[in-house]
Amino acid sequence: MPNVDDVARWIVAHDFDRVALQLPDDALPRAASLVRALDAAVRARRLEGETELCVLADTTFGSCCVDEVAASHRGAKAVVHYGRACCSPTSRVPARFVFDKRAIDVKTCARALRAHARTLGGRDAGTSPRCVVAVADQAYAHATAALREELRRDGDAASGVEIVIAESTTVEVDPRRDGAIETRVVDEGRERVGSASFERPPGVATDACAFVWIGGAGPSMTHAMLVLGERAERFGGVAQYDPEVDDEVRVEADGSSEAARALKRRRFLIAKAKEANVVGIVAGTLGVAGYREMIANLRKMIANSGRKSYTIVAGKPNPQKLANFPEIEVYIMVSCELTALMDSREYLQPIITPYEASIAFTSGKMWMGEVKLDFASVPKPDNASTSAGDDGDAGEPEFSLISGSLDVRNPVEHARAMTEEDTDAPNGLELARRAEDALALRASGAAAAVVTSGAEYLMSRRTYVGLEPGPKRDEETGELADAPLEAARGLSGRAAGYSDERAS
């Protein structure tokens, strides 16, 4: 049972009258006892008034995010999130995080880190790091202060490699009600890995740091490996110390080969996205601050590149849900950092991150292997959008790693075509013209007609399109016009003998 005293003090200090408790699925059997204990602790500290507690079970999106949607259904003024969390800033309600606590021998861990630093410091000049950064899993964040003190008391300066313990994650977040993306603060001495951050020693460059993960294998560790990327590879990748099974630091962490393959797959997904003409934006969160602005920026970026975009809100995404939109060629996942990197091998279409989309949809931009998952790392599109009346060149051709051909995409021509389509859009003439052209292509046996809209896909590529439009006479002019078939009265009665069925 987690310690409830700190949570009770937080609730009373902010005078919350209705609080939602968000628990992971494996902790739901303990929800009743947790509510009783927390309610008793709050009542003992409140001088007046009451606090209503409710439990959020099935989350709307990822379980690591604060479920503001479900909390709003109960009118909660705050959320207490238990278990693994992405610690993303919220947009509407304040939240407090309560992480799991696992046992760790601080002295053994400090001894293992010092031995690892001495081993790295004994390498030849130019191949040894100047700093070893230890990033702890959230379950061991409670011991980072004690570990830092243990290293300070029994430090080993003879190795020449300083050991830095990343700061534990924050336990409280306040909402940013403006909904804007947080401006990236450039600090040459501080870096962030997931929800943890560390400050490099003075004069130590980014590429002079080696990294150690404290904890077991899991999504958080894979996330850290991908974010650190090539910086960690310079000194053999991210090392690992698992307090439950290890007495010393392992040079090769569990899942290192899988993380390397995942990084290579990101390059393939970006190459696939460059070929796409129809892009889907999946809203994987409705609570992380700045998601609305991020979606708006992506829409503008996609339009400037001459592509079409659709925005989809489908709760927790799965292959079955996204397969309902086969006309979409690539998806962009707008979500928190822990759930942004999806393994899309089971999906019909590739799924990329907003930062990868900024590379794929910007002509001439190359991916250098970096993985950036925060919204602030995505460049905003130019305010001066492409005008259909301006002259412009198609730009330099780009070689496609997928089709093996050169592709030239002219945003000016695409913008002009989109403007012409919008002119006819109010009367529905453009959509009707496209459907007619698609039917003509299908009737003539043309293969793989170019699809630029979902409606055109339904008319040109799907084998079954439902009832065909039939003739209907206009009531005023008497002229024939294409229109959907009129509804007809069906049979009535029992299947053994309908009322208007002729006797055989």
Automatic annotation (TrEMBL):
* Keywords, in A-Z order: Iron, Iron-sulfur, Metal-binding
Task: Tell me which PANTHER family the record gives.
Answer: 2-(3-AMINO-3-CARBOXYPROPYL)HISTIDINE SYNTHASE SUBUNIT 2, DIPHTHAMIDE BIOSYNTHESIS PROTEIN
- Give the metabolic or biological pathway: Protein modification; peptidyl-diphthamide biosynthesis
Which purpose does this protein serve, as stated in its record? Required for the first step of diphthamide biosynthesis, a post-translational modification of histidine which occurs in elongation factor 2. DPH1 and DPH2 transfer a 3-amino-3-carboxypropyl (ACP) group from S-adenosyl-L-methionine (SAM) to a histidine residue, the reaction is assisted by a reduction system comprising DPH3 and a NADH-dependent reductase. Facilitates the reduction of the catalytic iron-sulfur cluster found in the DPH1 subunit.
- What's the protein called, per UniProt? 2-(3-amino-3-carboxypropyl)histidine synthase subunit 2
Region Disordered: which residues?
380-403, 466-504
MF-aspect GO terms: 2-(3-amino-3-carboxypropyl)histidine synthase activity; iron-sulfur cluster binding; metal ion binding
Under NCBIfam families, the record lists: diphth2_R, DPH2
Names of required cofactors: [4Fe-4S] cluster
> What domain of life does the UniProt record list for this protein's source?
Eukaryota
Q: Name one Pfam family in it.
A: Diphthamide_syn
* Any Gene Ontology biological process: protein histidyl modification to diphthamide
- Family per similarity comment: Belongs to the DPH1/DPH2 family. DPH2 subfamily.
InterPro entries named among the record's database cross-references: DHP2 (IPR010014), DPH1/DPH2 (IPR016435), DPH1/DPH2_1 (IPR042263), DPH1/DPH2_3 (IPR042265)
